[in-house]
Amino acid sequence: MQIALARFTLKPGVTEEGLLSASDEFEDGLVQHQDGIIRRVLVRDLTGGYADIVFFESSEAMERVIAAEQDDEVCARYMSMIEDGQPDEFEILKTYE
Fold first, then answer.
1. Contact by Cβ (8 Å): 56, 11
2. Which domain of life is it from (predicted)?
3. How far apart are CA 84 and CA 68, in angstroms?
4. What number does CATH give the domain 2-91?
5. Which tens digit of pLDDT belongs to each residue from 8-64?
6. Virtual CA dihedral for 42, 55, 8, 77, nearest 10 degrees?
7. Rg of the chain's alpha carbons, rounded to an integer?
8. Disulfide engineering: 74 pairs with which of 29, 33, 35, 82, CB 3.0-4.6 Å?
9. Model pTM?
């Protein structure tokens, strides 16, 4: 399993309400239609920064989804709201439930 964690801030003029609306559209329009995504979580930290955390079945699934995002209008709208977004990739070693 792989995790992509993209920390970001909002561009000037973008509200959290606008981000959530675009995130919902991104989830419904693209994410839910991609094989290999286990879960996606959007979080806010205590300083006003955000992170989009996506759990993938494998690194191959993650690569497929990233490729699908490249020319997707819904993804472009979501990404147009964020600044300083740089994803980090993690491989899960062990999960504790």
1. no
2. Bacteria
3. 21
4. 3.30.70.100
5. 999 999 999 999 999 999 999 999 999 999 999 999 999 989 999 999 999 999 999
6. -70
7. 13
8. 29
9. 0.85
